[in-house]
Amino acid sequence: LSFEAFRRTHSTRTETPPPCKCQMKTPPPSPVLPAAAVVLAFVAMAVANYLVTDNNLGAVKFTNTEIAHTHPVYGLLIGWAFAIWGIIYTLEGLFVVYQALPFQRFGGLREPSYAKIRGPVLALFAANSAWLFLFGYEVYWASQVVILVYDALLFVVLRRLDVNQLSSRRSAASKLAAAAFSANASWVTVASCLGIQVVLLDEGWLPSPDFAIGLLVVAVAVACAATFEYSDPVYAAVAAWALGGIIANQADASEFGCKSQICPACLAAAIPICSRDDTSARDGRPNGFAPLDCDSYTESSPDECVVAKSASVVGWAYAGIGCVAFALAAGLVRGYLRRQAEKRAPRPQPPFLEDVPSTPASGDSP
Q: Which pTM does this prediction carry?
């Protein structure tokens, strides 16, 4: 035998295998605790909503209805429009339950898109609850900051989901979450514009119809952008519903700004604006309702409307509905074309291993 053959046969040295050029991904953290926290936050929000509906419960000084009736600003919606909250909370409730279910086929506990949104969802549920109490205690400026944060968090959720409702590459679970929070975002954007006007009236100035229209344009622009981007009929429907509520509140048959709506709320709760003198120099835009003498009001008293209704607000609201409808049509066309392109393109496969750069071993060719 040659020396080299003898060395290979009798050598006891163990050769080190070449370094592995790949590594397994780190498993994601358990979603159980975040999912449970979302459930608890939703329950707390539901309890908060119940507590603020009746000031006899002692949770707040004034209910939302009492504040709305004594603050007749031009961005205010008619009473029946607020029933949309039933749909919003139902959709969010379905999401909350589904995201906590651990079943592999009919559960969303390990849904990848949910892991990205549980944090902001927790924060927006907390913001909703906080706003209810701040508004009920007439801490209007703080409540306005909170509702703007609340609205921003809703759009953070929508951005992280990034769901086009016509996409063939988004799960039904992610579309459910997107529908729930787009409905909420659509309404809260309009409510944020309303809140600004309530704050200003409480400061002594009932904003003009032109001011309300400016805020309306902002809300409609946001609605059009979101509806087009996500091909989202839910966002569009809620926005149109809200605009319809503003239109109905400016109708001749509405009690908006009338003694028959203001005085019952003033008699039910000692809201400061009820006893404040009207010092406004603008006809039809009072900043206090002491002259109404609500203490002597009865259901048989002749009605008197002290806030003038605005045909221009109605016209712009109708135009807003038209703009949202056009944005929805364009968004659906865009979504359909995107869906057809997705069907033609190969579906990307998620990698299970990640390449890790390594230095070539000695003797390896470069």
A: 0.86
